[in-house]
Amino acid sequence: MRLLRVAYPHPGFPDAPYERVAKLLAEAEAAVEGEEDVISQGLDDLDAAAGGDFDVLDDESATAAVAAITDSAFFARVHATFVVTFYDDHEVWDLLGYEGPSYDRGGYLHRGFDDLDWLPRPRITEYDGPPRPELIAGRDAR
Amino acid sequence: MTATADRDLDAELEPQLEPQLEPETADLGIDIDDSDEVVVIIGSGAGGGTVAYELATRGIRCVVLEAGPYLIADDYENDEWAAFNQMAWLDLRTTSGSWRVAKDFPNLPTWIVKAVGGSTTHWSGATPRFMAHEFAARSTYGQIDGANLLDWPIGLDDLAPYYDKAEIAIGSTHRHGRAPQPASNNYFVFANGAERAGYRYYATGPYGTNAEPYDGRPASIQDGFNFQGDKHRSKWSTRVREIPRAVASGTCDLRPNSQAVRITHDAAGKVNGVEYLDASGGLHRQSARVVCLAGNSIESPRLLLMSASSLYPDGLANSSGQVGCNYMRHTTGSAYATFERPVRMYRGETMAGIIADEAKHDTSRGFAGGYYMETLALGPAFLASFIEPGEWGRPFTEKMEAYARTAGMWIVGEDMPQATNRVTLNDDVKDALGLPVPDVHFDDHPNDKSMRAHGYEAADAIYGAVDAVSVHHTPPYPSTHNLGTCRMSASADDGVVDRWGRAHDVSNLFVSDGSVMTTGGAANPTLTIVALAIRQAEYIAAELAAGRL
User: Which of A80, B34, B147, B187 lies 20 to 30 Å from B366, alpha-carbon distance?
Assistant: First the structure.
């Protein structure tokens, strides 16, 4: 948990979605043959490098400790799992302001697909001035 | 998930759907006997699906072998990873070369679809045509070191009538009387930025999704998820148009979950059948009078190479040695810009926005060929994986926290064909069927890098003109535009197929997908693949009628 919050800091976010990723990492660990302890060993190594307990490091020291292991198989597993899982978590979608599927509610047609109010409404048809030179028939290709 | 107050309010509104379409069924058409010598079409995407429709509706019996399942609208998932796992081509592949995809996604060189409809299931819909000079890249650009440029054996005049037919089939907006797509929030930012940066040739299309009801399918409800199949069927694909009409014609036998593994030939060297594996691994052989190969630019050359024989020791149709070579993926990149105020780029049609001003050959920019810029949006799930692969820490999470204030665009332009960028059989690695996996080797050409850098600068100018807080340059995704590995040529010495897509070496073997592209142009390739397929099918039908095939 501390590792995830240090490596992927969203200060205002609650612990719950982080906890779901940590749980998945722990569960998935046992499932891969030959890598049964990659997560627990990686966490032990982090603790050892921190002089005993990674969790008590301040943010700056903890971030430096993560930076030292980003090339490891352990971190590769953590990273791949985190980016795929955390940002597919619907609580995180809400926190980011993402509304997800809309099909069952009639799409975004009447729910703000064009509600941007800080720029003028742009032209949607093609330019009605002279056509692009590249499209004029018979023009020398060069 | 947690329901927010906003969502509860929304739920009280009546959904404003158009009248319900007929429920879909996954009809497979007639049963054709394995020993019946018919036209066998391998693949059901833009090329294969179109050829099947054009032949079957002319009364020509054909079998379509599709490696993937038949997914219909109800099956599609409006969830990025669920849809990806449902329809992406995930069979093992390997990569080599200096492209970044080989580092970040070593077993996922492409992002294409394995399902009925092929990658038209996933395409986003932009339908620009090739420009005249792009058919004559060698003559126009001259000799470029390291580039294996060649003029196409056909020109825009040959293809123009078929572009018309393809646009009418697809229902391209802004063409043949079709209405434009409305402006989405992402387009507001894109088009205003373009105007202020001095660009003029921008619009919400041409785009292959209905803005108004057309061809029996409804208008878009701006529900996004273009890459996930379109549950509303407003988006054209061969899955909603050509395939159901082909099987309804009574002359077509569609076989999903059928992976072609070898094309066989007779003693005279003409192809006479296709061996394929069904879903349970059972081996079948369909007899063939003509074979149309449309497996996309990785699987098509792979199948030709796997079909090597004593008569064709280097692979079928490969006397030139060009099968698998000249692999192109378009020069791409994305730019994601953050703003102080909301954008919500995910609402609405994903790619209904195109700027064409840079699609020109103007070497004062430092490179040959040109590129388009097109609106693009990803959900948080995909954006996290692709915006800057491998990045962690606060720079990464800040990008994600800006999600609702982010606008996105894609840069797509012509890349240089190179003989060394190629698809080969990796005999050291076997797939689940025990077959050698394709290895995809790619190195960017210096021209590609210069063009990409220019595109990123253009994106900076466009988004800067509407007061972006930041613009991030995202590297190319696993390739969606896969081209060139069975190139079309006038001479049998330097290409695989002729002006009709017919193999130079084998008179009854055709290639019907984007792998025939001699050079890639700047345009998104689907429209051109469909136009070429309509033209090819017309030729095959005439040759069959004349008794020459």
Answer: B187
Mean pLDDT over B412-439 rounds to 96
Residue B14 has pLDDT above 50, yes or no: no
The answer to whether the CB atoms of B13 and A96 lie below 8 A apart is no
User: Which residues does residue B497 pair with via DSSP β-bridges, in sequence order?
Assistant: B488, B503
Q: Which of A8, A102, A117, A139 to mutate to probe the B interface, most B CBs <10 Å?
A: A102
Region at A60 (left for phi over 0; alpha for psi -120 to 50; beta for the rest): alpha
CB B416 within 8 A of CB B448: yes
pLDDT digits (tens, 9 = 90+) for B64-101: 999 999 999 999 999 999 999 999 999 999 999 999 99
Min distance A8 CA to chain B CA atoms (Å): 5
Q: Are B172 and B207 in contact (CB under 8 A)?
A: yes
| Residues recorded for chain A | 142
In sequence order, which residues have a C-beta less than 8 Å from that of residue B527 and are 6 or more positions away? Answer: B127, B128, B129, B163, B166, B167, B170, B172, B208
Question: Chain A closest CA to B288's CA: distance in Å?
Answer: 41
Q: Do A91 and B203 touch (CB under 8 A)?
A: no
Number of A–B residue contacts, CB under 8 Å? 198
| pLDDT attached to residue A137 | 54
Nearest to B160 by CA among B137, B197, B125, B131: B131
Query: For B504-531, what is each residue's pLDDT tens digit?
Result: 999 999 999 999 999 999 999 999 999 9
Nearest to B225 by CA among B346, B82, B345, B111: B346
Answer yes or no: do A139 and B132 touch at CB < 8 A: yes
Contact residues on chain B for A127, CB-CB shorter than 8 A: 200-203
Q: What pLDDT, in 10s, does the model give residues B294-331?
A: 999 999 999 999 999 999 999 999 999 999 999 999 99
Angle at B304 between CA B303 and CA B307, to 5 degrees: 85
Collect all residues of chain A within an 8 Å Cβ-Cβ radius of residue B172: none
Listing DSSP states for B333-382 in one string gives EEEEEE-SS---TTSS-SS--EE-TT-S--GGGSSSS-EEEEE----HHH
CATH classification code of B30-545:
3.50.50.60
Backbone φ and ψ of B252, nearest 5°: -125, 135
Q: What three-state secondary structure class fits B273? A: strand
Instruction: Look at residue B136 and give its three-state secondary structure.
Output: helix
The interface residues of chain B toward chain A in range 379-418, judged by CB-CB distance below 8 A, are 379-381, 383-385, 390, 392-394, 396-397, 400-401, 403-404
Angle at B502 between CA B501 and CA B506, to 5 degrees: 155
Specify the residue for token string 């994600």: B400
Cβ neighbours of residue B83 closer than 8 Å, sequence gap 6 or more? B76, B77, B225, B227, B228, B229
Both structure tokens of B156: 């825009």
Q: Residues B219, B220, B226, B232: what is their CA dihedral angle, to the nearest 10 degrees?
A: -70
This prediction has a pTM of 0.95
Task: Say if residues B472 and B335 touch (Cβ distance below 8 Å).
Answer: yes
The closest alpha carbon to B447, from B414, B472, B476, belongs to B414
Q: Measured between alpha carbons, how far is B74 from B250 in angstroms, rounded to an integer?
A: 25
- Contact status of B469 with chain A (Cβ, < 8 Å): no
Q: What chain A residue is nearest to B402 in terms of C-alpha separation?
A: A96
Give how far B456 is from chain A: nearest CA, Å: 22
B380: tokens are 């948080």
Q: Where are the domains of chain B?
A: 30-545
The runs of H, that is alpha helices, within B137-241 are 137-141, 156-170, 185-196
Do B185 and A107 lie within an 8 Å CB cutoff? no
Selecting from A91, A103, A112 the residue whose C-beta is nearest the C-beta of B2 gives: A91
Give the CA angle between residues B175, B176, B181 to the nearest 5°: 40
Asked if the bond preceding B206 is cis, omega within 30° of 0, the reply is yes
